[in-house]
Structure formats: C-alpha cells, structure tokens
Amino acid sequence: MAEIRFETGLVSYNLNDVCEVSFNPTDSAFVERLFHTFDTLDRKQDAYKAEIENVSDRRKIFDIARERDAEMRGMIDEALGAPVCDALFGGMNVYAMADGLPVWCNLMLAVMDDRHELCERAEAYEPAHCEVHGEVPQMMYDLPTSVEIEDTAYEIRSDYRAALDICAALGPVPLGRGPGACDTRYLYPGFADMPPEHYQEAIRQCFGL
Fold first, then answer.
1. Which residues pair with 14 in a beta bridge?
2. Residue partners of 39: CB distance under 8 A and separation at least 6
3. How many CB atoms lie within 10 A of CB 143?
4. Calpha distance 23→29 (Å, rounded)
5. 115-124 and 161-170 helices cross at what angle (nearest 10)?
6. Torsion of CA 123, 127, 130, 134, to 10 degrees
7. pLDDT value of residue 120
C-alpha cells in the first residue's frame, strides 16, 4: 500500500526527566486550551484557599485537599494530552508550593514559556508567506509599563509586546490573557526581589494586561 507522510509540527518535550508530552507549539487550539486551563486553575486556587479557611475540621480540610488535587490533575492531564501528573508529582498535592508558586503553576508556566521558539518563528513570518498575516489587526502598543501591587510598583519588560503579535498571528488565542505565553519571571525584571506574597497578584495582573 502506498504511503503518504507529511510534517505535523509536533515537538516532544521531556518534563523533569520523568515523562514526555508532544504538541505543536503553533497550534492555536492547543494554546487556547492551555490558556483556558491556566485561567481555570488560577481561579480554583483562590477558591481552594477560601474554602479551607472556612473549615475548622482538619479531616475535612484533608478531604477537600484530596478532592481538589484529583480535579486539578485531571484538568492538567487533559490540557497537555498526556497523563503527566502522577509521574511528575507522585503523591504530592499539586497545591503544594515550590519557589513561591504552587507546583501546578510552575508546570503550566514552564510549558507556556517558549520565548526562544516564539522569537525564532517570528523572524520567519513574512506577509507573502503567511496567509493569516493580513487578517491580524494591528495591535496598539499603549499597554502599561508597570503594575502596582499593594502600593509597590513593579516594572514590566516592554519587549513582551512583540510576543502578543506572534500569539495573534498563530491563531485565535484568547489574548485577554495574552502574556501567558511568557513566564512571569521574564515579564518582571525585578521578580527575584518580589516578596512571595505578591506572586499570585503579579501573575493575575500580567494575564489581565
């Protein structure tokens, strides 16, 4: 039987040397699913915190933690198209903290942080070779250069704006949460000096710019 082979653009990524995921980084359906999942998980993180604050029974708190952990693992596995959570986190609850952020958040940011490949792809974009180029509306660069968190101003790198155009060119990505394609640590030059209690709000504000 004759065979037809073609390139699908799938790229395989090794996650912490314990599992692997494959996806096309320019697939707008994947990017949209990733952003939507991050947004949903972020809201569930807040809901989880509020829920356990209103519970005094420790056993009930543990029950809630297990339920939310299982729910979040399922959403992450579905978003990445592979059962990665058991391999990556083992028996650890995905709400556990690492480097100032929940471990689920570290994973999602790491997957979304593909700056170098985005830049390389941007250099290859030419109007004559990209049919969607003419359909992408011109973006106005009137976005803020800093955000304020509890009376503290944090500078935002201005070069992330080009990444927004790239995301727009790749397809119907929900750009209302646009900077998600870039790691928060890249957006904020002073991230290393930012107190951990500001991390969550910094992430929220960078996604809402």
1. 20
2. 177, 207
3. 14
4. 11
5. 70
6. 120
7. 53
Asked whether 198 and 124 are in contact (CB, 8 A), the reply is no
pLDDT in tens, 95-109: 999 988 899 989 988
Is the Cβ–Cβ distance between 6 and 16 less than 8 Å?
Answer: no
Global pTM reads 0.58
pLDDT above 70 coverage of the chain, percent? 68
Residue tagged 């000096």 (tokens): 193
What's the sign of the alpha-carbon dihedral 29, 30, 35, 37? Answer: positive
Which tokens hold the place of 175? Answer: 């750009």
Please give the average per-residue pLDDT across 164-193, as a whole number.
Answer: 52
Look-up: residue for tokens 């996604």?
Answer: 207
Does the structure show a pLDDT above 90 at 89?
A: yes
Asked if residues 39 and 176 have their Cβ atoms less than 8 Å apart, the reply is no
Strand pairing category for 11-15 and 19-23: antiparallel
What are the b/e assignments for 47-79, b being 16+ CB within 10 Å?
ebeebbeeeeeeeeeeeebeebbeebbebbeeb
